[in-house]
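queue> holo job accepted (adenosine monophosphate)
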Amino acid sequence: MSNLYSRLAADFSANLDRVFAWLPDGRVLQYADVEAQSARYAHMLRDLGVGVGDRVAVQVEKSAEMLMLYLGCLRAGAVFLPLNPAYTIGELEYFIGDAEPSLFVADPAVAEKIGAMRSAAGLVRVETLGAEGEGTLAALAHQAPPRFDTVPRDEDDLAAILYTSGTTGRSKGAMLSHGNLASNAYTLRDLWQFTADDVLLHALPIFHTHGLFVATNVTLASGGAMIFLPRFETEAVVAALPRATVMMGVPTFYIRLLGEAGFDRDLVAHMRLFVSGSAPLAPDVHREFEARTGHAILERYGMTETNMNTSNPYDGDRIPGTVGMPLPGVEIRIADPATGRPLPQGDVGVIEIRGPNVFKGYWRQPEKTAAEFRDGYFISGDLGRCDRRGYVSIVGRQKDLIIAGGFNVYPAEVEEAIGELDAVREVAVIGIPHPDLGEAVVAVVVPREQGFADPATIASALVDKLARFKQPRKVLFTNQLPKNAMGKVQKAELRERHSALFATG
Ligand code: MCA
Ligand code: AMP
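queue> job finished
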């Protein structure tokens, strides 16, 4: 029973006539449909020659079909590899060359572009899948039989690869096993007291851990239902809230809800839980939310490489500014960044994680994997401390990372793209506090020619190079970047200098 799908199905098979999802177009998916459609996708994958352990790269708009394809991959023993639709062709070429998928599933609207890239990247097969269930892949799947014997898998066998960027070098594929995903799904289901009566408001993207594994696997593990929205749009979310019992989101979701005049206690009277993660939830937002709705948002902390690590309690104090305690079965230590020596309680150090949730390593990068573990613990790169009651607070990051609206942006990648431009002598990319996104990407450029100060030249040069969410919200110009004696750019000083760039009021 180590195949994640078999475990989930064992739980929901008693509820086949119950609703799994209400879809944006008014269709309703029952658990019986989940069984049948995932079986069709699994058959189709096998018919296309996708073998056990083969990667299936998927870059499509959010849809229920994409979820069925995910489950079909699990059932067929293939490795699901979702990609942000915002990635440009240049970014995709890298992922495809690295992961060598045997099938690439594209949105019908961009399939032609993918076709052009295909031979360059050595891509074998491209099929299409649209958000409305159109495309060549869906057509093939719909002809396939609705029953499939799920392939047995071991705990350590791969279920998915999710790419995550790094401070240096290109993105790395985090390998997640059936056991990794199952352990987290069941731990969270129990901790957050999910049941078959729950209705999750799902407005997150499904190409990342939060929307795909946390939201979807926990719902499946409890036999509950979801209101499946294509994206976060405040109005649509407000309209759906009265029918939901649980919502999961990044802090920007909660900031936007608080900006709605009609967002009040009555609207969320039916809710039992709001969960926040992927980026720090400002204590002020936490407090304002509680004052407006009576609900204390439950903040938890995770990573692509580890799934979820800590959570504020379901019953008990949910303390603003903390990410709660280690999950059952997960060990957290706060270590000296240089030596890995565990620090006395209360000291700030790097957060290190061990447990069944921690990934199997980076795809084909054993050295990088080895460098990020010590004593069996994964080194998160997040700086934190643990208080006397066991609550963990994240106080900073060792890694040079910006989190904008819950999406990670690595300055090194943006600096490389801008640094290549003729007009640019030097560039530093930093995250500046932003009222909506938490942090926003800002580039500080030293131009090659004094007096050059045209942000549009920089912006237009990045359109085809970087996904939109990585492109700077503002480009600033200066004659000189602050540097230390070693010649290293002092980003803390730069951030301080421009800290009020997006300040309101
Ligand atoms: C969209 N844009 C963004 C972002 N999202 N720019 C910067 N940061 C973003 N996060 C671009 C759009 O393409 C658009 O481009 C422009 O910015 C304005 O978009 P806007 O309408 O404001 O944004 P939106 O489309 O409403 O999206 C904002 C969002 C969305 C709803 C916050 O970014 C979102 O759903 N974020 C969730 C991310 C997430 O799921 N993270 C989980 C990672 P243009 O101007 O050209 O039209 S998993 C993880 O981190 C770990 C494991 C964990 O702990 O969960
Ligand atoms: P990702 O690479 O998308 O998996 O992002 C993981 C990173 O998001 C973590 O290493 C943290 O820096 C950050 N993160 C996730 N949840 C939280 C949280 N609740 N508070 C602060 N940072 C968070």
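queue> The first helix runs from residue 4 to 12.
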